[in-house]
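We emphasize that the prediction below concerns an isolated chain of 216 residues; any contacts that depend on oligomerization or on bound cofactors are therefore not represented. The input was used exactly as deposited, without trimming of termini.
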Amino acid sequence: MSGNLDKNQQAVAVFDKLAKEYQSKFMDVSLYADTFDRFCSAIKPGKATVLELACGPGNITNYLLNRRPALQILGTDLSENMIALAAANNPSAEFRLMDCRSIGMLDEKYDAVMCGFCLPYLSKEEALQLIGDASKIISAGGIMYISTMEDEYSNSGLRKGSTGDEIFMHYHESAYLIKALEESGFEMLETTRKESPGPDGSTITDLVLIAQRRRS
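Result of the prediction step, given as a token string:
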């Protein structure tokens, strides 16, 4: 546990340090627009409530609100500097400093949970726990969105960015994530993969899963 704690603390420190650089690089989320549109269309009409995990500078928040301005979004992150940027970028949303591993303690129910690229910073055990916890706070018929980098879990390890800062990145496998979703009461709506070139010339595969909480 202490190892994971150290990895998470290291990641938070890097994101605090590079919040503005991250914002400049990742505010454009058009690569994933089709999956966000699918997520938005699956959520119930009107003032639906959305819990966003690891919201960063509010890049996904901004897209969702442009698509559906009536959404009531609570964005959460462990980086204070990211939360500050997210609030500035999305005045109509609410933001809170919170660890995604603590959502099981929430009393509220949500119509949807957005988990965009949070899993790369969670171990397999933590990712599966997150899915189980999310099932308890998503209303019947509610929607969950997960995106992560797909590869064999054993390939997880420290990765150095262009700034020289290192973060431990966890790769995840679709089979155990989908199994966890189905065992937690979700039905799969969509499984999408997007490939892009990595900094070392390798191919990065991003996995997007959209699932609906069963109504009974």
